[in-house]
Amino acid sequence: AVVSTQSTGLDMFHKCNSPREFDLYEELIAAKTDISTLGVFDLLRRDFKMFTSREGSIVCIASITGANWEQYSSLPDLELQTDKFLSEFGVGVLVVMLAHH
Q1: Above pLDDT 90, what percent of the chain?
Q2: Phi and psi, residue 51, nearest 5°
Q3: Per DSSP, what are the bridge partners of residue 58?
Q4: Looking at the predicted structure, is the pLDDT value of residue 5 above 70?
Q5: What is the mean pLDDT of residues 36-63?
Q6: What residues pair up with 94 in beta bridges, in sequence order?
Q7: H-type helices in the chain, by residue range?
Q8: What region does 77 belong to: left with phi over 0, alpha with psi -120 to 50, or beta?
Q9: Which of 56, 58, 78, 88 makes a 20 to 30 Å CA pair with 27?
Q10: Which pLDDT score, from 0 to 100, does residue 26 have?
Q11: Are 94 and 82 in contact (CB under 8 A)?
């Protein structure tokens, strides 16, 4: 059997022993998910995985936490920055996963 020793965010939340620890935890989570100063290119390269398909295309899966579709699709220079990302990394297929809290 495989046993994971990694703590989840919920585990860390329950381990907060004081209001100060809880506040610090909340600040850390807010800072981690704050994407307000990032452009599309930076959001795409922040957390992505790439692989080559059987046909030879480079496939990229980018995960963006902190934005829903309306927010993401209204970012300035979306098309230009996406094209820059595709070109710089030689990506043929891009999948963007959005997670909003």
Answers
A1: 55
A2: -150, 165
A3: 52
A4: no
A5: 95
A6: 60
A7: 9-14, 19-33, 40-46, 69-73, 78-89
A8: left
A9: 78
A10: 85
A11: yes
Strands (E), 22-99: 48-52, 58-65, 93-99
Is the pLDDT reported for residue 4 higher than 80?
no
CB-CB neighbours of 91 under 10 Å:
19
Helix (H, G, I), strand (E, B) or coil at 95: strand
Q: What is the overall mean pLDDT for the chain?
A: 86
Look at residues 67, 66, 38, 63 and name the one whose alpha carbon lies nearest to residue 49.
Answer: 63
Q: In terms of C-beta density within 10 A (0-12 exposed, 13-18 middle, 19 or more buried), how is residue 44 classed?
A: buried
> Quick check: 3 pLDDT over 50?
no
Task: For tokens 């927010």, name the residue.
Answer: 71
Token couple for 10: 């919920």
